[in-house]
Specification:
alpha+beta; 5-stranded antiparallel beta sheet; 2 helices; 9 strands; about 45% strand
C-alpha cells in the first residue's frame, strides 16, 4: 500500500460511477543503475469491482506517459508502462473511454472499465504528470 502522505496521482480516469487512478510514492525511490524507480499502485473502483495492483515506475516511464497522453489527444490508443515488467494499462479513446488494467505477469487478470470522462480530463492528467515530475525533481 502507498502512504497517502507522500503519494500523488499520476492519472485519473473517472466518472460518477467508476474510476481508474494511479498514485505514485514520490519519496524514497529505489535505484537500479542509473534509473530510479518509485512505488506506485493502480486502483480500480466501481460498483462491480474494486482492486489495486502495485508496480514500480521510472523517470523514463513518466516521459512515456507524456507520449501516451499525446497519443490519446490524437485519438490513438495507448499502452503504459512499456516493457512488460509489471502491471500495465491500455487506454482506447472511444466514447466512453475504455481503460483496461492488466496484472501481468503476476495473476494474468485484466479488468476493463468503460469511463465516461468529463471535459478537461486530458488537461487534468497533464497537470498531474507535471506535479509528479516536480515532486521527484524531474522537469
Amino acid at each position: 500500500m502507498i502512504d497517502d502522505a507522500n503519494a500523488l496521482e499520476l492519472f485519473r480516469f473517472a466518472d460518477p460511477v467508476q474510476s481508474v487512478t494511479l498514485r505514485v510514492a514520490c519519496d524514497a525511490p529505489m535505484a537500479a543503475g542509473e534509473e530510479r524507480y518509485y512505488a506506485a499502485e493502480i486502483a480500480v473502483e466501481s460498483d462491480f469491482v474494486n482492486g489495486t495492483v502495485g508496480l514500480h515506475i521510472s523517470d523514463a516511464d513518466l516521459d512515456e506517459w507524456g507520449r501516451c497522453l499525446d497519443a490519446l489527444e490524437a485519438d490513438e490508443a495507448a499502452e503504459w508502462p512499456p516493457g512488460g515488467r509489471s502491471a500495465w494499462l491500455s487506454v482506447i479513446p472511444e466514447d466512453p473511454l475504455e481503460v483496461t488494467v492488466h496484472d501481468s505477469p503476476s495473476t494474468q487478470i485484466a479488468v476493463q472499465i468503460p469511463v465516461d470522462v468529463p471535459a478537461g480530463w486530458l488537461e487534468g492528467n497533464r497537470l498531474r504528470l507535471e506535479h509528479v515530475r516536480k515532486a521527484i525533481g524531474k522537469r
